[in-house]
Amino acid sequence: MFRSALIAAPWLAIAAALPALADSTEAYCRLSRHDHTAPVEQSRCQFSQRQGNVTVNMGSRWAFRFDSENEGRSYTRDNLADGIRFSREGEYTLTVFWAPPQ
């Protein structure tokens, strides 16, 4: 018993030090800025969520982070049947679709 505990202890320490994996998937994004001077951008994107915190990467140009603790303060989140919409008032709306939008 003591010997197996000595063998398992290092593996448990390593596992505890590793970050929890996020749910991540390829999605399709539409970025619309609220000043309406820039065109709407649409592209594939990478959506990742961990403990309610969301990260969305649209290629190498755009990276968005929505911390769950700031929902309702710095942004709003609307869960849709086909995706999720994030809005920052006066700045932009980012819609993430699970399938290519029609």
Topology:
Blueprint: H1 2-17, E1 23-33, E2 41-50, E3 53-58, E4 62-66, E5 76-80, E6 83-88, E7 92-97
Antiparallel strand pairs: 1-2, 1-7, 2-3, 3-4, 5-6, 6-7
Contiguous runs where pLDDT drops below 50 for at least 5 residues: 1-18
CATH topology: PH-domain like
Q: SSE order, as H and E?
A: HEEEEEEE
What would you say the CATH architecture is?
Roll
Description:
With 102 residues, this protein is α+β, with helices and mostly antiparallel strands. The protein has a single domain, classed as PH-domain like. It contains one helix and seven strands. A seven-stranded antiparallel β-sheet has the order 4-3-2-1-7-6-5, with no helix packed on it. The N terminus is likely disordered.
Features:
about 100 residues; alpha+beta; PH-domain like; about 50% strand
What does this entry show, briefly?
The protein has 102 residues and is α+β, with helices and mostly antiparallel strands.
